[in-house]
Structure formats: structure tokens, C-alpha cells
Automatic annotation (TrEMBL):
Naturally occurring in which organism (per UniProt): Cytophaga hutchinsonii (strain ATCC 33406 / DSM 1761 / CIP 103989 / NBRC 15051 / NCIMB 9469 / D465)
InterPro entries in the record: Ferritin-like_SF (IPR009078)
Name of the protein: Ferritin-like domain-containing protein
Biological classification of the source: Bacteria, Pseudomonadati, Bacteroidota, Cytophagia, Cytophagales
SUPFAM superfamilies, sorted: Ferritin-like
């Protein structure tokens, strides 16, 4: 009887996580549709020998977000496609990771659509350090990516212009970062079930109760480990 109860609890947790993430994804899509209808407010990022130029102003910030979403989408696509995916993860965990993959693809594609001809090229990733057939390696990397994504959006929000378009972009960023935070919490729960790690002191300031924030330079220094394409963020706003 105890085993049956535990299995039911685990099944319920999986269903709750999936519903949680599906709702989050739908909200982000609705916001992305709004931004895709807005006029671009910056010129196309110019090619540069120093790497793929993200551009300046709000376009630069959107390309920065687009670069990160490309990385995350590529990661989860490879996670789900791996031959050991169905053996190292339970059925509910597989569905959770598939849902996250779907969200990241939506984020990536809508940012690309919103940027239109100002979008940077597809980036080449390097996941050679990740063992996609190993549960700990996959979840550890997923945790790192999701935590990084949250801190990236938190840090970039203040760099968006105080204009009509900027307010739309800021609203979108807020929707996406809330989804990324839910991803992070779900992944952390997979790593350490029924613990306080979903909002651990390593990501949430115990004094303020707020998530951490990183600058684009800090984020790209970390993300660059997994991106082969050189990125030039020198024209991004800094304040």
C-alpha cells in the first residue's frame, strides 16, 4: 500500500509540473505575439570581424536574449534526441524535459520573428563536455543553463529603453524570465526532490527574497563555454 501511495504521489507531482510548465509556456507565447507585431526600433546589427555583432539598443538586448534561447533550445533538443533519454529518465521526467524543450523552442522562434531581419545568425554550439547519456550530467547542465537564463533576463531588464517599444520588450522579458524560473525550479526538484533547492540560497538572496542578476558580459563569459560562434556584445547598452 505504501509503494502504491508513493507512486501515486510521484505521478501527481509529474502531472502538476507539466501543467505548471504548459501554462507558463502559453503565457510566454501570447506575449511574444504582441512583440512580433511591433516595429523594429534599431538598425540591423552590422557584421564584424570581432564576431557576430548583437547590435545596440533594444535590438541588441533582444539579440542577446535570442542567443541564449538558441543555446537552451539546442541543449534540450539534444537531450530529448539522445538514445538513452528513455532509460535514464522516468516517463514523467521525460515529459517534463520535452515540455521545457518546447518552451525554449517557442522562445527562440518568437524572438527571431520579432527581430526579423535584425536577428543574428544561427549560432554553432559545443556540447562536447556534456554526457547526454548520463542523468547527472544532463540535469546538472540544465540547472546551470536555467539559473543562468534567469540571471541574464534579470540583469538585462534594466538595459531596455524607456520607450513605448521598450515597455513591450520589458513585458515580454518578464514573461519569459518567469518561465525560465519555473524551469529552474522544476530541474532543481528533479535533482533534489522535496527540498528547498527550488529556491536555494545560491540563486535567491535570503535577505531580499530576490533572484540574482548578471550583466551580459558575465553571462556570455559563462555561456561562451558552450557556443563556438564568437559573439560581439560590445555595442550593448550598459545602463
Amino acid at each position: 500500500m505504501q509503494n502504491t501511495t508513493e507512486k501515486n504521489q510521484i505521478s501527481d507531482l509529474g502531472k502538476n509540473r507539466r501543467m505548471f510548465l504548459k501554462t507558463a509556456g502559453a503565457t510566454a507565447v501570447a506575449s511574444a505575439i504582441l512583440i512580433s507585431c511591433k516595429k523594429k526600433d534599431d538598425d540591423d546589427p552590422a557584421p564584424s570581424d570581432m564576431g557576430v555583432n548583437l547590435g545596440s539598443g533594444d535590438t541588441g538586448i533582444l539579440n542577446y536574449a535570442y542567443a541564449l534561447e538558441q543555446l537552451e533550445a539546442a541543449f534540450y533538443i539534444q537531450v530529448v534526441a539522445n538514445s538513452k533519454f528513455t532509460t535514464i529518465f522516468s516517463a514523467s521526467e521525460q515529459q517534463l524535459l520535452k515540455d521545457i524543450k518546447a518552451h525554449e523552442i517557442v522562445h527562440r522562434d518568437f524572438l527571431k520573428a520579432a527581430l526579423s531581419t535584425s536577428a543574428i545568425q544561427d549560432l554553432e554550439v559545443n556540447f562536447s563536455s556534456i554526457d547526454f547519456g548520463n542523468r547527472a550530467s544532463v540535469l546538472g547542465t540544465a540547472k546551470a543553463f536555467e539559473d543562468l537564463g534567469v540571471s541574464a533576463y534579470n540583469g538585462a531588464g534594466q538595459l531596455i529603453s524607456n520607450t513605448a517599444n521598450g515597455l513591450v520588450y520589458l513585458g515580454l522579458a518578464g514573461k519569459i524570465v518567469s518561465v525560465e524560473a519555473r524551469h529552474a525550479a522544476a530541474i532543481r526538484d528533479l535533482l533534489n526532490p522535496k527540498s528547498a533547492d527550488f529556491s536555494g540560497d545560491d540563486v535567491v538572496d535570503a535577505t531580499t527574497g530576490l533572484d540574482g542578476a548578471k550583466t551580459p558580459a558575465q553571462v556570455l563569459a559563462i555561456a561562451g563555454t558552450y557556443i563556438k560562434t564568437k559573439i560581439n556584445a560590445s555595442n550593448l547598452p550598459t545602463a
